[in-house]
Amino acid sequence: MSETAKSRAAALPHLRRAGLAKGDPIPLPLTMAAIFHAPGDATGFDQYGRFSNPTWDAVEHMLAHLEDAPCVAFPSGMAAISAVFFGLLKAGDRILLPSDGYH
User: Fold this and answer.
1) Residue 62 domain-assigned?
2) Residue 99 lies in a domain
3) Which comes out higher in pLDDT, residue 97 or 84?
4) Looking at the domain assignment, is residue 30 inside a domain?
5) Which of 45, 49, 69, 80 sits CB 3.0–4.6 Å from 74 for a disulfide?
6) Gap between the Cα atoms of 55 and 40, Å rounded
7) pLDDT digits (tens, 9 = 90+) for 3-41
8) How far apart are CA 64 and CA 56, in angstroms?
9) What is the pTM of this model?
10) Burial 7-38 (b: 16+ CB within 10 A, else e)
11) Which domain, by its residues, includes 51?
């Protein structure tokens, strides 16, 4: 991947959004909101910051573009660990962890 492609990776999701006007910032601004207004029964977009927000979407897109692989960001280390365990382990499996692992 070229250096130019790498440098543009972060801006791609924001540039594709509808309504981008001349003079609007190209890099996606940080979204500090925890909750978002949603019309009626709307789904498929940002509703609560711990689940998804525009900044996370941009990070996931950028990392996926840079690594040429899927990417998922988690709100906490425990959420990431849980996702790995639930994705890999079956009922009855055992796992060996160090006693000083995660406190």
Assistant:
1) yes
2) no
3) 84
4) no
5) 80
6) 24
7) 666 666 555 555 555 455 666 666 666 666 666 666 666
8) 12
9) 0.54
10) eebbbebbeeeeeeeeeeeeebeeeeeeeeee
11) 1-15+47-87
The two tokens of residue 58 are 């941009």
Q: Would you state the pLDDT for residue 88? A: 92
Burial of residue 75, with CB atoms counted within 10 A of its CB: 0-12 exposed, 13-18 middle, 19 or more buried: middle
Q: Which amino acid is at 26?
A: I
Assess contact for 82 and 58: CB atoms under 8 A. no
Residue ranges in 1-103 assigned as alpha helix (H):
3-8, 12-16, 54-67, 77-88
Domain count, the chain: 1
User: What is the pLDDT at residue 98?
Assistant: 83
Q: Are the CB atoms for 77 and 33 separated by under 8 Å? A: no
CA gap 55, 33 in Å, rounded: 10
Is 37 part of a structural domain of the chain? no
List all residues 6 or more positions away from 53 whose beta carbon is below 8 Å from its beta carbon: 31, 33, 36, 46
Q: Which two tokens stand for residue 50?
A: 């711990």
